[in-house]
């Protein structure tokens, strides 16, 4: 009997052992606290900050910040509560309540940040991706399931982060703009990814990822995309053309679509390619139907008049279509 395979160390990892030890609750001068350089959250939009600030002005900081003391820099670093700290600074609060924990390693720091926040809804994904990248380098770990276990993120979120990390820095910076009105949403780049990295598309002689990305950004900024999910339709048209061996035609159409933001997405739809895909799918359905009919037990169908009438109608339609195609029905 063959021996069972041992799981590799990377698949055994969990967030246990990455949490710093608790020290206790105390008050610390607001000016003695500093932002965490490993905080996956880098963007703090003004409107939600104002709401929190108004609350703190009325009742104070009710939930203690989580901090640790950096022995090298001789200062307190925030693990959780940077927004509360920013508001306390603006309100000129002398001190804030904190829950101090032991000084963490770099890996403990990043993992703890993820575990504390669990990717709150108002987080932007690109800053999270950058910290995930640092964690991957520190641990030499790329396995999605393991990273999800360590950070508390969904596997789908880890996958999305890895897609964002595939983009050059200039595009990542667009997702990090401090002005929310100028910031390009991560969803745009995530939806674009499937087309941008399609092997079939990358085989076109004229195509470069950078040219295509800049063109789609222009189209997006000018309102030429009703939704970033429109790239799913673009991908479908490309897949249809590939399956129908229409490489030359779809290459020409995609090039025109890239070069002119006035050309609609439907221009990429090659009618014959779409028909070929539909016929292929129908052929599979017919094959299954033939198998199902052949396996019928006739005795079980006696008295099922509606079924036999449907079968007769189907036979009539098939004979009609065969005649239109110049084919003789098999006897």
**Biggest β-sheet, characterized?**
5 strands, mixed
Distance between the first and last residues' Cα: 55 Å
The SSE order reads: HEEHEEHEHHHHHHHHHHHHH
CATH superfamily of the largest domain, called what? Conserved hypothetical protein from pyrococcus furiosus pfu- 392566-001, ParB domain
Poorly predicted tracts of residues: 5-11
For the record, the CATH class of the largest domain is: Alpha Beta
Q: Please give the domain count.
A: 3
The best one-word shape is elongated
Number of helices: 16
Structure summary, number of beta strands: 5
Structural class: alpha/beta
In percent, how much strand structure appears in the residues? 5-15%
Q: How is the largest sheet built, in terms of strand order?
A: 1-5-3-4-2
**Residue-averaged pLDDT:** 83
Helix content: 40-55%
Computed Rg: 29 Å
* CATH architectural group of the largest domain: Alpha-Beta Complex
In short:
This protein has 331 residues and is α/β, with parallel strands linked by helices.
Give an overview of the whole structure.
- This protein has 331 residues and is of the alpha/beta class.
- The chain has 3 domains: 22-165, Conserved hypothetical protein from pyrococcus furiosus pfu- 392566-001, ParB domain, CATH 3.90.1530; 193-272, no CATH class; 300-331.
- Helix content is 55%, strand content 9%.
- It contains 16 helices and 5 strands.
- Strands 1-5-3-4-2 form a 5-stranded mixed sheet.
- A hairpin with a 4-residue loop joins strand 3 (65-70) and strand 4 (75-80).
- Helix 2 packs across helix 3 (82-90).
- 22% of the residues are buried.
- Mean pLDDT is 83; it is low at 5-11.
């Amino acid at each position: 009997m063959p021996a069972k395979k041992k799981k590799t160390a990377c698949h055994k990892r969990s967030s246990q052992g990455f949490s710093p030890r608790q020290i206790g609750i105390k008050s610390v001068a607001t000016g003695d606290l500093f932002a965490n350089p490993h905080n996956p959250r880098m963007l703090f939009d003004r409107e939600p900050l104002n709401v929190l600030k108004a609350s703190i002005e009325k009742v104070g900081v009710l939930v203690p910040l989580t901090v640790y003391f950096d022995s090298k820099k001789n200062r307190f670093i925030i693990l959780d509560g940077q927004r509360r700290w920013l508001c306390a600074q603006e309100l000129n609060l002398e001190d804030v309540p904190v829950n101090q924990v032991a000084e963490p390693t770099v890996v403990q720091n990043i993992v703890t940040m993820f575990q504390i926040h669990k990717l709150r809804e108002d987080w932007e994904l690109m800053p999270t991706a950058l910290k995930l990248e640092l964690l991957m380098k520190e641990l030499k770990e790329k396995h999605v399931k393991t990273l999800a276990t360590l950070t508390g993120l969904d596997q789908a979120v880890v996958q999305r982060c890895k897609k964002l990390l595939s983009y050059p820095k200039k595009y990542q910076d667009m997702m990090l703009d401090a002005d929310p009105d100028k910031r390009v949403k991560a969803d745009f780049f995530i939806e674009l990814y499937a087309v941008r990295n399609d092997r079939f598309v990358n085989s076109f002689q004229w195509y470069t990822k950078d040219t295509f990305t800049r063109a789609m950004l222009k189209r997006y900024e000018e309102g030429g995309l009703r939704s970033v999910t429109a790239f799913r339709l673009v991908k479908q048209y490309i897949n249809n053309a590939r399956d129908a061996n229409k490489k030359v035609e779809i290459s020409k159409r995609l090039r025109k679509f890239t070069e002119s933001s006035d050309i609609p997405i439907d221009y990429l739809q090659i009618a014959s390619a779409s028909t070929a895909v539909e016929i292929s799918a129908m052929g599979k359905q017919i094959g299954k139907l033939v198998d199902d009919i052949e396996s019928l037990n006739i005795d079980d169908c006696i008295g099922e008049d509606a079924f036999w009438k449907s079968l007769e109608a189907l036979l009539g339609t098939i004979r009609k279509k065969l005649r239109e195609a110049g084919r003789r029905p098999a006897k």
